[in-house]
Each structure stands twice: as structure tokens, then as C-alpha cells.
Automatic annotation (TrEMBL):
Residue ranges of every copy of the Alcohol dehydrogenase-like N-terminal domain listed in the record: 26-138
Signal peptide (UniProt feature, chain positions): none
Listed InterPro entries: ADH-like_C (IPR013149), ADH-like_N (IPR013154), ADH_Zn_CS (IPR002328), GroES-like_sf (IPR011032), NAD(P)-bd_dom_sf (IPR036291), Zn_alcohol_dh (IPR050129)
Name recorded for this polypeptide: Galactitol-1-phosphate 5-dehydrogenase
Pfam families for this protein: ADH_N, ADH_zinc_N
Gene Ontology terms for molecular function: oxidoreductase activity; zinc ion binding
Transmembrane spans: none
Family the UniProt entry places it in: Belongs to the zinc-containing alcohol dehydrogenase family.
Sorted UniProt keywords: Metal-binding, Oxidoreductase, Zinc
Organism annotation: Enterococcus florum
């Protein structure tokens, strides 16, 4: 079969890969119908390279089941599924860590995702444990289903917070994660959603997805604008979805006294926090939530159930974020396009489709 393999930084190849085989009774083989490029994929392509050179890449995908192991009970050949990419102790045939024993799967000491140490979703087929297959209602199409994972990541983070009806939410960074955070904040009754980014294109997308106020951090003083917009009340909940070293060090100032900041972005460099911003944590008695992955108990968790429910009810519309649908063989070219500052803004969510 064909697949995209990452060998090193900026070395992605479209190559042949052995077809996956059933090895455990709980294994399921899926023909992939849609797979999305994650922001973390772009960072790894540009800055870090693969965990294992030559590994089949990708962790956001959906597809149709074509083969099942002898112990598979609920998933059948022909089932339409969204793939949960998270692999914990159980999946790696090692003793359960203290967090897996408690059902705190996002905190698993050996947590990984497909595409890191195990073949991922940028391929024609993939093997998953049955429990990692989320069955789809008929009303959820496979392209939308490929976006369940990033939506569940955001939902996992928002479950940590105390977001309530009537709140002001500040979302910093308007890529896929930020846009989904905007949609979900609106669904949960936020009175005002302030979107912050340095790209006018991204801010236009934020507005189209429900943001009520836009701030361009390249041309405006973010803190001063939030003070003006909220008459000094600031945000009840701040969502850091940019993953930049600057925003990660400054978002504490955007929250109200007694408010909180949830970190969904992943900075890939050291962060230096000025005293002015750090003191906001202490003097304003902020709550800081770290959020990792998308799963909880019973696996894969309420996050996935909630997202499917919201999509079924036409409240959450992750498919609105899709701007490009391309073939798998175009992967090396598209990742190089994403490296170009002059063209990267033109891309929203990119899906590989058959």
C-alpha cells in the first residue's frame, strides 16, 4: 500500500508500506477515507523530525473497517469509524501504570499516538485496537469524522475549565484548535468570544466560526484592547491555542481575577515569562490548566461522545474548517508549501482523501 513516511526534518516521502496484519484478537484493519494534517505535524516536519525515521505519519483520520480479529465484538467489516490515535500501556503490552489503573488515560506514563512509534494514518490502511474505533452515526460523514480527534482535544481542555453561560472567553491562536475552541465556547453559552491572532486571514476565519471580537496582535496592543473591550474585567477563561513562546508567556494577563487559562498549544522552545505576566498568576489568583490529548474513562471518554453528539445536532461544524482536500501523493509538496510564510495563511484544515 502507499503511505507518507517522515525520515527527518523536511524529509517526507510517498512510498510503499507493507499492508497491516491482524496480530491480536482485538485488532481491526481500517481503510482510511480521510486524514487531516495537525498543527503538531507541521511543527514536527519543520523543527523536530520523526520519533522513528521512516515511520508512517499522521494521527487524525477516519475510515471503513475491512478486517477484524477473532475477539472483536462491536466493530464489524463495513463499520464507519473515527480513529482514536492514543495508545496507552494496555496497547503496548506493558504493565499498567498508576494512571492507567485509575482510568486517567491522558496521563499514561507510556502514552503515545499512532504515527510516532506505531504506523499512522497517512496511509491507505491502518491497524488499531477495537477500543480505538469510534463508531459513527449515519449522519456524520467521513471527512467530518476525520476531525473528531482535534475537536475532542479541545473538548478535553474545556472540560478542565469552569466555562459557564455568559462568560467572556479569549482564544489566542486561530488555527484548527483555536477555531474549534471558538465554536465550542459559543455552543456552551459564552457571551463574548475574543479571538487573537497575527494573521488577518485567521481572524476572518475566527469571525466566521463565531468570534465576536477580533484582535490582531501584529498591529494592536492585545492587553490594552482586552482591557478596553471588557472595561477591565478581562476574560473568564483564556484558551492558549497558538503554542507560540510569546503568547504562552503573556496569556496570564488576559484573564480576570479568579479566572483561568487553559493551555492547548504546544510551544517547541523555552519560554521566558516576564515578572509582570507571572505575577498575574499569583496576584490575580488564577487557575492554570494544562491539557493533554483527548481521552478519559471509560476509554476513549466523554470527550468523543460529546463531540459526536454536537455534530449530530448540527451545533458543532468542524467541516467548516476544511479548505483543501488533496491526494496522499501530494503530501511532500503540501508540507513544503506550509513552510512558506507567504502562502501558509491560505491553508485551513487540509485533508488527505482517496
Amino acid at each position: 500500500m502507499n503511505a507518507l513516511k517522515l525520515y527527518a526534518k523536511r524529509d517526507l516521502r510517498f512510498e510503499e508500506q507493507p499492508y497491516p496484519k491482524i496480530e491480536k484478537g482485538t485488532d481491526v484493519i481500517i481503510q482510511i477515507k480521510a486524514a487531516g494534517i495537525c498543527g503538531s505535524d507541521i511543527s514536527r516536519y519543520k523543527k523536530q523530525g520523526p520519533y522513528v525515521p521512516g515511520m508512517v505519519w499522521g494521527h487524525e483520520f477516519s475510515g471503513i473497517v475491512v478486517e477484524t480479529g477473532s475477539q472483536v465484538k462491536e466493530v464489524t467489516v463495513g463499520s464507519r469509524i473515527s480513529g482514536v490515535p492514543t495508545l496507552t500501556c494496555e496497547d503496548q503490552s506493558i504493565n499498567l501504570c498508576r494512571y492507567c489503573r485509575k482510568g486517567e488515560y491522558a496521563r499514561c506514563e507510556q502514552l503515545t499516538v499512532v504515527g510516532a512509534y506505531y504506523p499512522g494514518g497517512f496511509a491507505e490502511y491502518i491497524k488499531l485496537p477495537e477500543k480505538n474505533c469510534v463508531l459513527l452515526p449515519d449522519s456524520v460523514d467521513l471527512e467530518t469524522a476525520a476531525m473528531l480527534e482535534p475537536a475532542a482535544v479541545v473538548q478535553h481542555g474545556l472540560f478542565h475549565t469552569n466555562l459557564t453561560i455568559g462568560d467572556t472567553v479569549v482564544v489566542v491562536g486561530c488555527g484548527t484548535i483555536g477555531l474549534l475552541a471558538i465554536q465550542l465556547s459559543v455552543i456552551y453559552g459564552a457571551r463574548r468570544v475574543i479571538a487573537v491572532d497575527i494573521s488577518e486571514t485567521s481572524l476572518h476565519r475566527a469571525q466566521a466560526n463565531g468570534a465576536t471580537v477580533l484582535i490582531n496582535g501584529r498591529t494592536e496592543n492585545i492587553l490594552q484592547r482586552i482591557i478596553e473591550l471588557t472595561e477591565g474585567d478581562m476574560g473568564d477563561v483564556v484558551v492558549e491555542a497558538a503554542g507560540s513562546i510569546d503568547s504562552s508567556a503573556q496569556v496570564f494577563a488576559y484573564a480576570k481575577k479568579g479566572g483561568g487559562v487553559v493551555f492547548l498549544g504546544i510551544p517547541y522552545s523555552d519560554i521566558q515569562i516576564e515578572r509582570f505576566y507571572f505575577e498575574k498568576i499569583v496576584r490575580n489568583e488564577l487557575t492554570i490548566w494544562g491539557s493533554w490529548n483527548s481521552v478519559s474513562a471509560p476509554f476513549p471518554g466523554k470527550e468523543w461522545e460529546t463531540i459526536i453528539h454536537l455534530i449530530e445536532k448540527k451545533k458543532l461544524q468542524p467541516e467548516r474548517l476544511i479548505t483543501h482536500r488533496i491526494k496522499l501523493q501530494e503530501g511532500p509538496k503540501i508540507f513544503e508549501e506550509l513552510m512558506k510564510e507567504e502562502t501558509s495563511d491560505s491553508f485551513g484544515k487540509i485533508l488527505f482523501v482517496p
